[in-house]
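Sat 14:20. Reprocessing the chain from the morning session after the first attempt stalled halfway. Input below, unchanged.
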Amino acid sequence: MDGDNLMRLLMQGAAFGLVLAIWAGGMLWWWRSQKKRQAMIQQRLEGAQNQAANTRTLRLFHEGKEATTVVREDGGKLGFQDRLEQLRLDAGFHSTLRTLLLQVLLAAVALAFAIILVTGRVMPALVGLAALLIFAWTFANHRATKRAQTFERQLVDALELSARALRAGHPLLASFQLIGEEIPPPVGRIFSEICQQQAMGVRMDEALRRTAQLTRNADMQLFSASLAIHMRTGGNLADVMQSLAIVIRERMRLGRRFKVLIAQTTISKRILIGLPFVLFALLNLVGPDYMDPMFSTDIGRALLGAACVGVLLGWAMMNRMSELTS
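Finished this time. Tokens:
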């Protein structure tokens, strides 16, 4: 009888995983096709007017002379798929978004099968899926944060290197080539791409604007805007580079001091989020009979679902509070 129950649980788990995988794949394909169709229709309807509507012309005056520059305005909030794609780029994943989602889905199905085989219940598998999704999202954001910090440190070194090269008599493009040779990726590769665009006939301010939009880094956008203005109105570019490096370095120092002040709160948040999942797994392994009422009774299942929802809401609220205070 025990063998029949185990086989029935395996068959139910396999059917559940297969249906979940087929449904997720179908929804992903339908979502992607709808997005492509909407983007194509939007591009055909708006055309060049879309670019004109999302740009703004600034008039600059310096020593009685007028200069104009075009600044791209924010087009509004990004959709969920665009946010995932931007997170993938910020985290530095080389695989496509579809490949990453498929890997996470396969890992979730494998984890669900393993939990069902160990515990013989479906509810722990669902809790494990939620924990895996939270871990994947947290890991991607952590990697994006680390990559942004590395980008900021390298950008300071690149600006100081460019300032020294300009004071030594090198032109601006030669200083960018020097940054591409001396500074490792990602900053070195970005400045090398700027030099390649310049060699292909793209204007320097346009190449800087495109790079700032792709990196979505506030310091890079500030550097791009400052350099574009000084290239049109005139000025000492070496002093501009040095001043920007000082400003970015000072902001990084304040950011590190702020992280030290909230380190205790950050650790408490991680412990509070991870402790329920760890205790839930240990109790299911050590005392399955003790946790049986949580799965066999309606009140237990309701309490378990409320606990999962509460943990997810607490995780979202604490992340939102940390974003507002940072």
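Residues 262-326 form one domain.
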